Task: structure prediction
Amino acid sequence: MKPLTIAIDGHSSTGKSTLAKQLAKALGYVYVDSGAMYRAVALNALRNGWVSKESGAQASKINAHVEVLVIDFELDQKGVNTTLLNGEVVEEAIRTMEVSNVVSHVAKLVPVRRHLVALQQAMGENGGVVMDGRDIGTVVFPNAELKIFMTASDEVRAKRRKAELDAKGQVHSLQDVLENLKSRDKADMERADSPLIAAEDAVTLDNSSITREEQFQRVLGWVEDLQK
Ligand code: CDP
Result:
């Protein structure tokens, strides 16, 4: 059976990566976290002083350097997907609020998107891939066999993200977490190049009040229907 391409897009902190990882594991597919790639570019820009929450991005600097960054993934000893930036493990460093506060400034730059989209397309060129992000079903893989658009209420999303940060010892108020999610959603939906929008042929999945397991079983059912 031909391996499928599964595109998962949606708002911030809707559990896209959780679902994508579950599916990739169950199907033996490759998982690609496209958001981690934008976060890695943002981390590099932060370290160089090329972006700040208040002033936005210094586009010329970031655009001029994006192509020399080496961004890839490997599985750590526990089999957990890990992001590398120029060979350095940055999995934790890219998930801080500092990076979340600037990533959408970086993600709207056209040369950054062009470069990362080309890398993502190469990673998924043989199918058998689950990729999550904002423009996977619309731009990266417009021919994906299954496209899912995930959403959930603001309150549920903010509580989930706060719990993730708390577990890592990064303590922020629920209000700050919520504001970050809302401002990123707004920036991601309003940007000119590949804005966050559901593909016309995407299935919407609101997981405000279903469990992870219910969600997983529902989506596995969709996959099985496609494989019949
Ligand atoms: O985990 P969360 O859903 O909060 O975000 P993420 O998937 O790690 O993505 C971080 C940011 O990268 C998003 O807010 C977007 O600004 C950007 N992004 C994008 O523009 N296009 C993608 N395909 C993936 C992420």
